Amino acid sequence: MAHDHHQDTHGSAHEQGHGHAHDHGDIDWAEMAPHLEAQAELYTPLYRQALAWLGREVTDPGLVVDVGSGPGVVSCLFADAFPGARVVAADGAAPLLERARARAERLGFGDRFGTLAGDLPGALADLDYPADLMWASQSLHHLPDQRAALADLGGHLAPGGTLAILEGGLPARFLPRDIGIGRPGLQARLRAVEEDAFAEMRADLPDSVAEAEDWPAMLTAAGLKHTGTRSFLLDLPAPVSDAARAYVTTSLSRLRERIGDRLDAGDLATLDRLLDPADEAGVHRRRDLFVLVAHTVYTAVRPV
Predict the structure, then answer these.
(1) Any residues with CB less than 8 A from the CB of 303 and at least 6 apart, and which?
(2) Is 284:167 a contact under the CB 8 Å cutoff?
């Protein structure tokens, strides 16, 4: 159970973040890890906001579990935010967990940091004791039965424990509506194509269960009590840092790989110009690149 995404608001970097949830056996996770780390590090201001909010709802958790942790960037943010907690990074990709362990050691959290490898959520049965706080970032929408997965996660919470899921929000924007080449509105059209591809991905999952994306209702149906919803903004205005520029380039490159064959000739030509390092209008050189995205977090507690 592993999928390579983490900015994925079921879109713009679908193949790029850290929630790992369904099989992509052909992915070289060791090769992918630096990209996943760089993206999560770029999004750290957003995650810190979310963790500060969670810290007002959850006080002194003994065990925090990051479900679909990837290389552990956010797991280590939890270790930093909750200094009294043991943190377990759970993921289906062992090479990413090796990175997570190394990061925790490097940051001085090694003595209270563990990893759990295996298909999720089933692998959580190997937890030593129930979690006080469980975090699942953009992994649930890659599971065939999301409501059943929520119930499974909830079953690994201590009574009164909190499940926080990051799903949805607003997709990342990188470019103005009119970028001076091609037809204006390119990113909105790319997004529409991504939405169709995402719907097909969900439908093609074995034993897929169609579900309206009403996360509070799904949490309630899973036997949990919805306690809060909050969205967090990442706003990196132009001109962007080299790290943000590299993230945009990687995101658009992976988008080209995934949906290039679905684009009309004009938009494909524009995207190829954007990805050409030698093109003055490309993302390697543009001065108007930015990163603007919102992620939504839903919290629920297991009844006592």
Answers:
(1) 159, 160, 223, 224, 225
(2) no
| Token code pair at residue 81 | 């935010």
Whether 259 contacts 14, CB under 8 Å: no
pLDDT tens digits, residue range 51-102?
999 999 999 999 999 999 999 999 999 999 999 999 999 999 999 999 999 9
For residue range 19-59, list pLDDT tens digits in order: 333 344 467 888 889 989 999 999 999 999 999 999 999 99
- For residues 169-184, average pLDDT: 97
Task: Domain 29-171+211-233+291-301: give its CATH superfamily.
Answer: Vaccinia Virus protein VP39 (3.40.50.150)
**What's the half-sphere exposure (Cβ side, CA atoms, 13 Å) at 125?**
5
Under DSSP, the state recorded for 142 is G
Q: Is residue 90 classed as helix, strand or coil in its secondary structure? A: strand
- Domain locations along the chain: 29-171+211-233+291-301
User: For residue 31, how many other CB atoms are within 10 A of its CB?
Assistant: 9
Question: Is-above-0.85 flag for pTM?
Answer: yes
Question: What single-letter amino acid sits at 152?
Answer: D
